[in-house]
């Protein structure tokens, strides 16, 4: 009888553990979907002629912030989580705004979110505990998804300030993105 109770307890614990991990994946996908919608709304609201705007000379331009978000999303998801060879930021042309229209940049960002979400949908919950070298620190894949969300928010916030500095009212804040 004691063995049966112990076995049932282990099964319940394991089920709860996997359910929580699946919930993390579901929550992360929802957050990426919401972030995509909000970022594309911000990008759409900024006039194309203002995409080169910089708050200071050393700052990234509006377009550079947008494409940097895409590069980081691609790198974190495809290279760190998905094990694809990393793009080199200094030589990459896919995520550089040069010679790209506003529509092309927005399409690239949208596609990058689609790819990142598809990859996350295929992640096995146990994989989230795998630790990777992240700039000299050990971070789990779960932590990398959290860091990625912070990074998107950081650069999108700069873009919102650029909108205000150009006399535009940014879209209303959307929760959980």
From TrEMBL:
Extent of the signal sequence: 1-19
Keyword Metal-binding set for record: yes
UniProt-listed InterPro entries: DinB (IPR007837), DinB/YfiT-like (IPR034660)
GO molecular function: metal ion binding
UniProt keyword terms in alphabetical order: Metal-binding, Signal
Keyword Secreted assigned: no
Pfam families: DinB (PF05163)
Residues binding a divalent metal cation, per UniProt: 68, 151, 155
Family: Belongs to the DinB family.
Protein name per the record: DinB family protein
Organism: Maribacter spongiicola
């Amino acid at each position: 009888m004691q063995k049966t109770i112990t076995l049932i307890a282990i099964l319940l614990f394991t089920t709860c553990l996997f359910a929580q991990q699946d919930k993390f994946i579901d929550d992360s996908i929802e957050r990426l979907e919401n972030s995509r919608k909000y970022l594309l709304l911000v990008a759409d609201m900024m006039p194309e002629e203002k995409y080169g705007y910089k708050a200071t000379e050393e700052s990234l331009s509006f377009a550079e912030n947008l494409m940097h978000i895409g590069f980081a999303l691609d790198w974190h998801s495809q290279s760190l989580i998905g094990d694809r060879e990393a793009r080199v930021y200094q030589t990459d042309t896919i995520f550089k705004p040069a010679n790209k229209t506003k529509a092309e940049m927005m399409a690239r960002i949208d596609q990058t979110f689609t790819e990142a979400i598809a990859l996350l949908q295929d992640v096995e919950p146990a994989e989230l505990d795998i630790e990777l070298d992240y700039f000299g620190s050990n971070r789990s894949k779960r932590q990398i998804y959290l860091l990625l969300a912070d990074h998107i928010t950081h650069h999108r916030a700069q873009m919102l300030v650029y909108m205000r500095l150009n006399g535009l009212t940014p879209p209303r804040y959307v929760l959980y993105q």
